[in-house]
């Protein structure tokens, strides 16, 4: 690569384009830099990835980082082809190429001198007006820009991604006094829409929002545990689920991010925080942590951390460290007493665990409250940072609301912790209030202000605040989301399908026909649907309620086909898991508007079944319809067979498209909070001149095709890839996909295809091999390989 | 009967299917470049060619529509030259030679291009539309059996251990490495123009293969078996061609005569152990040539798998030091339709180089067959 662009003919940066950026440069191919580059590539934007020039192949650092990411799990890339959008290079030979980039992200080592050297190099070549942002997590913006020209300061800001950038939704954006506010707005918009981030504006203070509060919380928790004699397992049970904090708690989280990071963060915080900040009083190095690091216990990336896996004697024993002695012993399961499972119970509990919870959460929440307006003017921004940066269910201010701000103030007095001004100010009120269906947040001015949402962000929770569902039962609801569009929402556990879901869906189709223009299938929950309720299915089989099961299959088939042939457009908007029946339902929609993180597939074979609600036929049609599928009777059923027989699940919407679940015209939304609005827009775009699809005709491969599949499966069995019962299940699947008894000269109708599915499903359900699989899945959550 | 000679041999570089440098090249374009290379190197008058006989094991997709004719037109052969596609699976392009030899003997033409091609990248093994006969599959499942399983069957029946197979595979890699390093393969290779530039070197050999490396590989076909990817020929993209003509024509035109064809044979065997196909075919060919195994100075025995190669060597009583002197298919690759012409051409070339009198080229064929050609140095 040798692009030479003279400074005089450098074009202006094109950040203003609505579509985003034409090319982005990331400097620093370490874990963060490389995976930021990968995520920009996930958005379809070309990236120039630069690192230092070393070795014979002077771009080997950047190249190596890309190669490594292709093997990393969880994958930084949504599709391996995204890697081709990253052009590797080095800062010596390829610096001129920076001139072609509309945004430059710096993610090199945390040293001001090295960063400033790089900034000067970039300043000489970058496109005029192209924003440069640092991914620093510790260095204040004012230190980074000190002594640099005004033109640089105007275009400089901090964009702080969280690791791993593809999966962590938080982005803190920080501007300096001189930063052009346009950059903050436009880059923020790009990161929101194209990269799918929730952008939180933070002030230029150490650790910004999430790390300032989060690391303080971890620090207080570790110190208090040592001082109060609370064990590692106890801490993670107390400071975990009861407060809506992931079950990794405190110690599990430190192991994950690296024990060795703690002293670095402490030192950097101590050096940069104002004197008198409560953080500093807690930031003295702990001898235990120093010893752990010296012994190589740096966390999961090392030999282990506060937890370790002992493999002595060939076994696998989970052990945890004794915070007093530093010795490891087998981890003890610790459960809180039933009387202390909620935050409120814990905080009033008279025992040691209650006392510990009071100290840690009292300190943490008070610290968070004391930092507004120092780190942010906006309590909702602080809460968003903690929910998205640390995966807390709710942020500190919402937690204080749960406790009750007045009660919380009393608790702080009892603990001898100064009551923050904001907590005093809110008094007997709450930090959040609902007014006319709009959430209002308490401001530093003592007044309530609506929590602002960027345009195009729509959640069912917002709709719910404004009124009642149009239709609803215990399993599902139908909502009016405006402009003539209805939204069908499943509300069961893991959004599994039961009779109630199908019943309401049937009613909803009738209702939408006369009262709405279009329908969207969507849920705010993390997962669209985990499929059929296996527990119910097994129960029915054990009762030998074959008639009931047959009815459920029939009802699923007829309801999904009613959805497909409804006289109005239906758009599925899946995010997270969409498995089994959850996948079949999206296959029956006119269009799919998926979240980029879509984990979908027809997984029935894993429990010894086949898709029985039309999924086999729909996958056959999708494979047939792809012009890239080779001609002849076999390639289409083979595409469907290879995916269904191994219960393949996509690891992204991009992969779902490769699997033919998403079609060419189906859309992908990067930002989880924009999925519903995008799906609604897609549905409305289909309304004019909408005609329901025509009934398909299946061209099948017949007995010869079935033999070919049987042969392939027999080969896999001898390779040890397929199990004996796989042969039975795959045989049933092959029978359906090749048209059963129908000859290759015959046209098979959709009804006949459904009949094949129904028969195949019922035949497998009568087989003990299938029942063993279902039972095993219900008991262990893992597939049985019988 | 007219005497038949081999008067030229070329091939493309062989590359791993789906990974190598020929994945983007259509098989018809690949074969056409090899045919042009043969014409240039032999100096044969194109208008004298009677027919282009092209071997291909899965003649569908880009390999369909009578590939023999298509390739002749892409290669700009005179319009009068015929084109036919021949399929005997792995034995396809050796069959091309046999067809030409029969025609020449009968006086039905003087010069033939006998070529073979397979893009195992662009047309998968088994084809896009495998539609086996259900009744035959029930009665004789071996007909459609995975080749790897037949290799396991042979290993079991002939008690050939994994270690023996690996020692054989290692020798194949070492012989190929020596041949490449000594430049002994470069003359036969026609550089191929691909969408990504010219390709002139083989891509299949793994010169760094070690016994330890082979011993560490996972079993490829049967988890209780002995055959690994290291002791099997790889899926390969490649093409090859030989010029087959009457001895009289070669003399008149001053073509370089490499070897005279003495006899040919095919023979069926049980499909489940198709790898021993060369045994009966070779015995028949030897008898027809009136010579014995001891008379052979050069043997090209296609290495579909190490297990079947060793079984054939043992059954026929072949001397190991004259077999696959420049390496075999385990190292060089096995583009199904192209292998037959390669080993016929290679055996003819080696007769000259090794100054031997008789050469055997033989190979096994899926579905249970063997094919063999005996040549004599001129």
Fold and architecture overview:
Chain B: InterPro entries: Thiolase, Thiolase-like, Thiolase-like_sf_Thiolase, Thiolase_acyl_enz_int_AS, Thiolase_C, Thiolase_CS, Thiolase_N. Chain B: Residues 256-377 form the Thiolase C-terminal domain. Chain B: This is Thiolase family protein. The complex is a heterodimer of chains A (786) and B (378). Chain A is of the alpha/beta class and 786 residues long. Chain A has four domains: 7-202, NAD(P)-binding Rossmann-like Domain (Rossmann fold); 210-442, N-(1-d-carboxylethyl)-l-norvaline Dehydrogenase, domain 2 (Orthogonal Bundle), CATH 1.10.1040; 460-603 and 649-693, 2-enoyl-CoA Hydratase, Chain A, domain 1; 699-780, no CATH class. Chain A is 43% helix and 13% strand. Chain A is built from 31 helices and 25 strands. The two termini of chain A are 54 Å apart. Chain B has 378 residues and is α+β, with helices and mostly antiparallel strands. Chain B has a domain at 4-123 and 235-377: Thiolase/Chalcone synthase (Peroxisomal Thiolase, Chain A, domain 1), CATH 3.40.47.10. Chain B contains twelve helices and twelve strands. In chain B, strands 1, 2, 3, 4, 5, 8, 9, 10, 11 and 12 form a ten-stranded mixed beta sheet that branches. Chain B has a two-stranded antiparallel sheet with strand order 6-7. In chain B, helix 2 (67-74) links the parallel strand 3 (49-55) and strand 4. The radius of gyration of chain B is 19 Å and the shape is globular. The two termini of chain B are 18 Å apart. At the A-B interface, helix 28 of A face loops of B.
CATH architecture of the largest domain in chain A: Orthogonal Bundle
Number of domains of chain A: 4
Give a short account of the largest sheet of chain B.
10 strands, mixed
Outline the biggest β-sheet of chain A: 8 strands, mixed
Percentage of residues in DSSP E strands of chain B: 15-25%
Question: Do you know the CATH topology of the largest domain in chain A?
Answer: N-(1-d-carboxylethyl)-l-norvaline Dehydrogenase, domain 2
What is the fourth-level CATH superfamily of the domain at 4-123 and 235-377 in chain B?
Thiolase/Chalcone synthase
Shape of chain B: globular
Summed over residues and divided by their number, the pLDDT of chain B gives a mean of 97
Strand tally of chain A? 25
**Helicity of chain A, as a percent range:** 40-55%
> So what's the CATH class of the domain at 4-123 and 235-377 in chain B?
Alpha Beta
Per CATH, the class of the largest domain in chain A reads Mainly Alpha
The number of helices of chain B is 12
Helix content of chain B: 25-40%
Give the N-to-C terminal Cα separation of chain A: 54 Å
What percentage of amino acids of chain A are in beta strands? 5-15%
**SSE sequence of chain B, one letter per element:** EEHEHEHEHHHEEHEHEHEHHHEE
Largest interface: A-B, 21 and 18 residues
Using only C-alpha atoms, the radius of gyration of chain A works out to 28 Å
- CATH topology assignment of the domain at 4-123 and 235-377 in chain B: Peroxisomal Thiolase, Chain A, domain 1
């Amino acid at each position: 690569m040798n692009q030479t662009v003279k400074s005089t003919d450098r074009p202006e940066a094109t950040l203003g384009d609505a579509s985003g950026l034409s090319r982005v440069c990331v400097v620093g191919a370490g874990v963060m830099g490389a995976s930021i580059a990968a995520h920009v590539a996930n958005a379809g934007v070309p990236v120039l990835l630069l690192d230092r020039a070393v070795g014979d192949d002077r771009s080997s650092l950047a190249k190596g980082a890309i190669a490594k990411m292709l093997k990393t799990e969880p994958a930084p890339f949504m599709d391996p082809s995204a890697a081709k959008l990253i052009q590797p290079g080095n800062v010596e030979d390829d610096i001129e190429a920076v001139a072609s980039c509309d945004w430059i992200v710096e993610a090199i080592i945390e040293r001001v001198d090295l960063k400033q050297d790089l900034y000067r190099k970039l300043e000489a070549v970058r496109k005029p007006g192209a924003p440069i942002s640092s991914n620093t997590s510790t260095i204040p913006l004012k230190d980074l820009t000190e002594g640099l020209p005004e033109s640089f300061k105007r275009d400089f800001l901090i964009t702080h991604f969280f690791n791993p950038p593809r999966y962590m939704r938080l982005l803190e954006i920080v501007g300096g006094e001189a930063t052009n506010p346009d950059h903050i707005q436009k880059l923020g918009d790009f990161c929101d829409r194209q990269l799918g981030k929730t952008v939180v504006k933070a002030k230029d203070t150490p650790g910004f929002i999430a790390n300032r509060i989060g690391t303080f919380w971890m620090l207080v928790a570790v110190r208090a545990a040592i001082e109060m004699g609370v064990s590692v397992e106890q801490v993670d049970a107390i400071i975990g689920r009861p407060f809506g904090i992931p079950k990794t708690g405190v110690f599990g989280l430190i192991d994950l991010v690296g024990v060795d990071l703690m002293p670095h963060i402490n030192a950097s915080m101590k050096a940069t925080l104002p004197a008198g900040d409560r953080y500093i009083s807690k930031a003295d190095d702990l001898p235990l942590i120093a010893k752990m690091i010296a012994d190589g216990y740096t966390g999961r990336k090392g030999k282990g951390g506060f937890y370790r896996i002992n493999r002595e004697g060939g076994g696998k024993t989970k052990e945890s460290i004794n915070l007093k002695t530093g010795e490891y012993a087998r981890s003890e399961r610790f459960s809180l007493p039933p009387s202390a499972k909620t935050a409120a119970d814990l905080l009033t509990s008279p025992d040691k665990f209650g006392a510990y919870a009071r100290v840690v959460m009292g300190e943490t929440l008070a610290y968070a409250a004391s930092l507004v307006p120092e780190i942010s003017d906006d309590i909702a921004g602080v809460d968003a940072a903690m929910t998205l940066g640390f995966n807390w269910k709710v942020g500190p201010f919402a937690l204080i609301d749960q406790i009750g701000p007045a009660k919380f103030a009393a608790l702080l007095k009892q603990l001898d912790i100064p009551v923050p001004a904001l907590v005093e100010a809110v008094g007997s009120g709450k930090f959040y209030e609902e007014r006319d269906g709009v959430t209002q947040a308490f401001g530093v001015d003592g007044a309530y202000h609506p929590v602002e949402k960027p345009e195009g962000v729509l959640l069912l929770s917002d709709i719910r605040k404004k009124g009642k569902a149009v239709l609803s039962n215990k399993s599902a609801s139908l909502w009016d989301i405006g402009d003539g569009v209805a939204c069908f929402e499943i509300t069961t556990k893991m959004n599994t399908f039961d009779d109630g879901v199908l019943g309401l869906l049937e009613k909803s189709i009738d209702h939408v026909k006369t009262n709405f223009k279009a329908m969207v299938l969507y849920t705010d929950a993390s997962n669209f649907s985990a499929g059929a309720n296996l527990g119910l299915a097994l129960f029915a089989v054990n009762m030998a309620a074959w008639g009931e099961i047959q009815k459920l299959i029939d009802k699923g088939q007829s309801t999904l086909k009613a959805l497909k042939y409804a006289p109005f457009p239906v758009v599925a908007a899946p995010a997270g898991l969409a498995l089994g029946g959850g996948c079949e339902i999206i296959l029956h929609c006119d269009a799919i508007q998926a979240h980029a993180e879509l984990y979908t597939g027809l997984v029935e074979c894993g429990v010894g079944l086949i898709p029985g609600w039309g999924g086999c036929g729909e996958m056959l049609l999708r494979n047939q319809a792809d012009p890239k599928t080779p001609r002849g009777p076999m390639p289409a059923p083979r595409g469907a067979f290879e995916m269904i027989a191994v219960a393949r699940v996509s690891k992204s919407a991009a992969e779902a498209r490769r699997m033919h679940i998403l079609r060419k015209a189906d859309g992908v939304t990067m930002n989880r909070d924009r999925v519903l609005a995008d799906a609604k827009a897609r549905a409305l775009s289909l309304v004019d001149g909408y005609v329901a699809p025509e009934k398909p005709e299946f061209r099948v491969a017949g007995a010869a095709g079935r033999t070919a599949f049987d042969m392939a499966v027999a080969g896999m069995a001898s390779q040890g890839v397929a199990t004996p019962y796989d042969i039975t299940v795959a045989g049933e699947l092959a029978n359906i996909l090749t048209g059963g008894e129908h000859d290759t000269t015959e046209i098979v109708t959709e009804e006949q295809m459904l009949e094949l599915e129904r028969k195949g499903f019922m035949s497998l359900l009568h087989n003990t091999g299938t029942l063993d699989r279902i039972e095993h899945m219900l008991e262990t959550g893992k597939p049985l390989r019988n | 009967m007219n005497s038949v000679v081999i008067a030229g041999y070329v091939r493309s570089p062989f590359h791993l299917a789906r990974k190598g440098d020929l994945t983007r090249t259509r098989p018809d374009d690949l074969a056409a470049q090899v045919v042009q290379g043969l014409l240039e190197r032999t100096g044969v008058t194109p208008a004298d060619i009677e027919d282009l006989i092209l071997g291909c094991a899965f003649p569908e997709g880009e390999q369909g529509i009578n590939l023999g004719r298509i390739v002749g037109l892409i290669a700009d052969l005179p319009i009068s030259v015929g084109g036919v596609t021949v399929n005997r699976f792995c034995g396809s392009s050796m069959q091309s030679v046999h067809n030409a030899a029969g025609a020449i003997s009968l006086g039905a033409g003087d010069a033939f291009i006998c070529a073979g091609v397979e893009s195992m990248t662009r047309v998968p093994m088994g084809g896009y539309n495998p539609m086996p006969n259900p009744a035959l599959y029930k009665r004789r499942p071996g007909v459609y059996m995975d080749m790897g399983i037949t290799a396991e069957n042979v290993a079991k029946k002939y008690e050939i251990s994994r270690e023996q197979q690996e020692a054989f595979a290692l020798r194949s890699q070492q012989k190929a490495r020596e041949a490449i390093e000594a430049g002994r393969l470069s003359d036969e290779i026609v550089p191929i123009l691909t969408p990504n530039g010219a390709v002139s070197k083989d891509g299949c050999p793994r010169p760094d293969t070690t016994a330890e490396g082979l011993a560490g590989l996972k079993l490829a076909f049967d988890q209780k078996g002995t055959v690994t990817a290291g002791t099997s020929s790889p899926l390969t993209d490649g093409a090859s061609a030989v010029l087959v003509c009457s001895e009289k024509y070669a003399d008149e035109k001053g073509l370089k005569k490499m070897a005279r064809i003495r006899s040919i044979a095919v023979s069926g065997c049980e499909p489940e152990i198709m790898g021993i196909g060369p045994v009966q075919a070779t015995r028949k060919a030897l008898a027809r040539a009136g010579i014995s195994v001891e008379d052979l100075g050069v043997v090209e025995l296609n290495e579909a798998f190490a297990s079947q190669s060793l079984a054939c060597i043992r059954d026929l009583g072949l001397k190991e030091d004259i077999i696959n002197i420049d390496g075999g298919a385990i190292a060089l690759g096995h583009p199904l339709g192209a292998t037959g012409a390669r080993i016929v051409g290679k055996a003819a070339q080696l007769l000259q180089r090794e100054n031997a009198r008789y050469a055997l080229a033989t190979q096994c064929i899926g579905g249970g067959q063997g094919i063999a050609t005996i040549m004599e140095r001129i």
